[in-house]
Amino acid sequence: MFAAWRQPRAILWTAAAVVTLGFLIALEIAARHYGLPGPMTTQVQEVIVAPKSGFLLYASMGLMMVVLTWRQRFISVGVAIGIDLVIFLVRWAADAKVTEGHPFGNGALWVILGWAVIAVTRRTGPEQVLLLKGVGLGLLLVTGRKTGDTWLLITSKTRTQVLDQYVATADHALGNPSWLVGRLVESTGPIGARFLDYVYAQLAVAAVVVTVYQLRKVAVERRFPGHHLVRTFLVIGLLGPGIYMIFPVVGPIFAYGADGGHWALANLWPDTPPPVSTPHHMPFDEITPRNCMPSLHTAWATAIFIHSRKGPRFLQFAGALWLIATLAATLGFGYHYGADIVAGVVFTLTIEAALRALDRGWDRAGIQLVAYGTVVFAALLVSYRYLSMQMAEYPWVFGPLVILSMVSVIYGYVRTTRLWEPKAAPARQPEPQPELV
């Protein structure tokens, strides 16, 4: 056992677990400093109290079940539903109404934790490792959501000044797409807005659908593939909030709309694009998250689109639809500027390229692509901050340059990953056989 733990892979996983635990404890302490429960506390609470998203918990259970047999899956789903029914009846009997979150989902979390106990107490060897990986995969999705909520709290408390004026000014080079799409969404009425809101809110569920397809053979092959969507999702969620802290932006509906209250610069969104004037830092409240730059919803939707390309036609169609609808929602609801969208796409492709290169082994093409994507992403942020006036004054110069920079990263990603795809061996032609005359 001691010799096994000394293996490089075991050391790496142990170090990752220690770092993750330390990170969660640090976020818990930070949240407590501001008088709110952290990610670990809120997760423990959802064992009993109504979860914030029951759909997310069942999606997490779906991820965990990729390592189970079909019989175990049916039993798990039945147990989860049964537990939810019991908890629902107990709340009904106690007249404990659910005012926030969903009245279901606790059962799914109980099942995930139950399989964790079974893995530790009833499994050994490779079967134990595989089951623990499945449990960890399910819990990572939930923990990532809780961690993200705490990160957003920290951004609102620690970044009292926001850079929305700079991004809004730079967005003139792109034609103020948030204002344009915002008016289009308003014209669709409540039906269009409700559909886009559902797509925007259930992004994690779409990711689970694609991931379950990617991991559909795990139960048979008894191993996980080298790279899948969850890895990209987690790295995006890990690195993205760090950019929030460097480049805090609240979004047009808050900085230029009614949702910003008296903190808003003016009530202009989505009817009147902001005038071009010298941008400045502006103070904002300690409630609104500074979660615009880059747009992580765009980043995650782009990752879903990329990973759905190798699926069946219906999954490809769903991935494309989810990306388009997410872009429409992020802009149409005033949550993001066009500049955020461009940065989010470059951000995702760079991360995806790095993870694929790590999985297959670094080569010159992979290093160049990741380095180029990193430089383009940094150049975009620097331009938004220090060249925003020039971008607004010369939109026909800077607008195409911004789009071209994004397209160049897309082209580089497609070209490089195609080189990485295994070449199909040519079919052997049968040799001519002598015939009897």
What can you tell me about this protein's structure?
This protein has 437 residues and is mostly helical. It has 19 helices and two strands. The chain has helices at residues 2-5, 8-33, 39-45, 54-64, 70-93, 106-122, 125-158, 164-170, 177-201, 203-214, 218-221, 229-246, 252-255, 296-308, 313-332, 338-360, 364-386, 388-393, 395-420, and strands at 161-162, 282-283. It has a two-stranded antiparallel sheet. Helix 6 (106-122) packs across helix 7 (125-158), helix 8 (164-170) crosses helix 17 and helix 16 runs antiparallel to helix 17 (364-386). The longest helix is centred in the N-terminal third of the chain and has 34 residues, at 125-158. It is globular, with a radius of gyration of 24 Å. The chain starts with a helix and ends in a 17-residue tail after the last helix. Residues 1-6 have low confidence and may be disordered.
Structural class: mainly alpha
**Spatial strand arrangement across the major sheet:** 1-2
Figure out the total of helices.
19
Average pLDDT, to the nearest integer? 87
Q: Which residues sit in consecutive blocks of at least 5 with pLDDT less than 50?
A: 1-6
Biggest beta sheet attributes: 2 strands, antiparallel
Radius of gyration: 24 Å
Order of helices and strands: HHHHHHHEHHHHHHEHHHHHH
Distance between the termini: 71 Å
Gross morphology: globular
Q: How much beta, percentage-wise?
A: under 5%
Helix percentage range: 55-70%
Count of individual beta strands? 2
Pick out its properties:
437 residues, 2 strands, mainly alpha, 70% helix, globular
